[in-house]
Task: structure prediction
Amino acid sequence: MALLVSKFGGSSVASIEKIKHIATRVKAMKKDGNDIVVVVSAMGDTTDELIALARATGSEKCYREMDMLLATGEQQSASLLAMTLNNMDCKAISLTGWQAGIQSDSTYSKAKISGMANQRIFNEINQGNVVVIAGFQGISPEGDITTLGRGGSDTTAVALAASLNAEKCMIFTDVDGVFTADPRIVADAKKLSKVSYEEMLEMASLGAGIMHSRAAECAMFYNVKVEVGNSFNNSPGTLITEVANMEKHRVVSGIAHDKNCARIAIFDVPDKPGIAMVLFKALAKVGINVDMVIQSAMRDNRNDIAFTIEQDDLEKAVPVMEKLVKEICASGMSYVDDVAKVSIVGAGMQSNPGVAADMFEALAEEDINIHMISTSEIKVSCLIDLCEIEKAVKVLHKKFALDKLV
Amino acid sequence: MALLVSKFGGSSVASIEKIKHIATRVKAMKKDGNDIVVVVSAMGDTTDELIALARATGSEKCYREMDMLLATGEQQSASLLAMTLNNMDCKAISLTGWQAGIQSDSTYSKAKISGMANQRIFNEINQGNVVVIAGFQGISPEGDITTLGRGGSDTTAVALAASLNAEKCMIFTDVDGVFTADPRIVADAKKLSKVSYEEMLEMASLGAGIMHSRAAECAMFYNVKVEVGNSFNNSPGTLITEVANMEKHRVVSGIAHDKNCARIAIFDVPDKPGIAMVLFKALAKVGINVDMVIQSAMRDNRNDIAFTIEQDDLEKAVPVMEKLVKEICASGMSYVDDVAKVSIVGAGMQSNPGVAADMFEALAEEDINIHMISTSEIKVSCLIDLCEIEKAVKVLHKKFALDKLV
Result:
């Protein structure tokens, strides 16, 4: 008898019909003799509808109240799934984040889980209940409801699996698993049966969108075995686990791409120590992450700095940068949002020099211009024009023979 | 500086526009130098929509989960009102039932308030916040979310006013106050400036629908001064207070009517001690309240018993009664749902004999047949045919000169 944690996203609980479908699945897992904890997101568009209401009040930046509002979405889907299970003679009980003992800090709208007080969950399991937990939420030290920000439900599930010492955390979504590239772009993209934590982490950060990087990080840290699969069919998903289990011959495991990019360039920045720090601190202060960075060669003690951010953050970043350009006496700035990032990811790259060169070659053969490059031990990313992103994904998928993967 | 508790019903918070309207009103009360606690119901149709979802799961009788689901409605409206107030520079914070310390028993779907732990409310007031509390909900000793059943939000407001020692509890609704009769039926019905707790209690039970009888009972018990008024205008409402303040000359204060009636008759019930008890215990067991009862004169040691219940309960009552008719060897039963109850209510009736006779006379003059009668110290109710209810209300309003009230 194993303890399994399953997480179902918003599209898996978008209607009562879909809830009934996953309830059947949960009941089958329970009937196999497992103890089951289920984490759910809010139904389909619920969160968007609540955000629209909040916007209408003119006060959607009132984060403490926003969390109070948004947390109701997951509470609703959790109770509806518990009802459905009970109606199928599968004993179930729903718990909110605070009832499940999910403790967080007080950073409303993007709180971090700080602790787990799981006694209630164990009590309910011991009474034979499937425990359905509202994802994406916790309780602050002040006793206020918090939400966990992007990837919050995935992170809830992985953190619960870690603290409950579950055998596996199953993340159910609307795709079959992790693919070598987005199947909507590359028709012969292959599903990977296993990826390493590190690869999943890179793929998640690079826009693969299957599982949030925060959850992948948590899984890696606590060594939680995660399986990503489709809630609407029973085909085996992708297992995310330690690199020790990986097929060593695979150099590149997948092609990731991200259209949510914008590039800002600052011209003629004085070459003084700490200038880059000033720029990026100002962005961090308004909650903007900088991704790729290049600093051009020095000329007359001045140089140009370019960097990328999420396109969604551009509106917030531009006024901050315009103000700074004056303060640091740069000559000006520019920004574009018609750029995108394509990346190759693979744990095998570490011991295979020349992979980056292969990537640049493949892009050059198709006349795709590279604006920026960034690398890590297991990935290489290139910023290119947005209009060429699909072509780039296809050519790289072919170049690294991912369509031949078995 | 006074502490005021205000309650706004579902129609008052049905849209963001309406929420803005009441926020303006709350801000004005706060600006007058008062400490403000606001209790809100769920937005307009939210509760009905959630019930429809629950029905679709086939498990709407799973009361613990229903409460988990339904409580989200008030949590949403509370947070939206708090956001709106903050956006108007009126500091506000929303609290759920459990955050506000509203303790209840574990009778899911119709829990009773068992205690108040108001420290958090006082803390927030001391920090200058308007405190917006989700009505209709509490927390059970097991730490589960409960809802308080019919009239739950009114009761939350009155109970808070009592425990916070508020100067006044203001129940805002979509009518101007308590009228001498339903203004939709009697065009010249007058708004009463004051009524006694007892009168309000009778009117509420008799279907006046302004304020729930449970809340009126709570107000009477704890001596909470309540004002019922219109959330959409500033005309003075009706003050509900001790009878000592009442105008003594008023014999009848109002005409109430209730169309939600059904009558069940059981024929030839054996005249044995405890038979009536058996009937009414069986109904109580399925949660049905019996209202008016008559037992006809005995004939051959057998007699007929007739009683009224809420029309909504008829479907549930009939099979229970059919089973019992056999068990107690009665000869049969019948039921009708085209009946209604008209009542006269007035604290002055206690010292004015002959008021009931005046009522019967007025109905007789209009050829309105009376099926059943029940009386208390301050009211007389008659069951009549549903099709005659409006005529009856009008003629009684005139008979007791309520249109001449100043």
Notes: Chain A has a mean pLDDT of 90. Chain A has two domains: 3-174, 255-404.
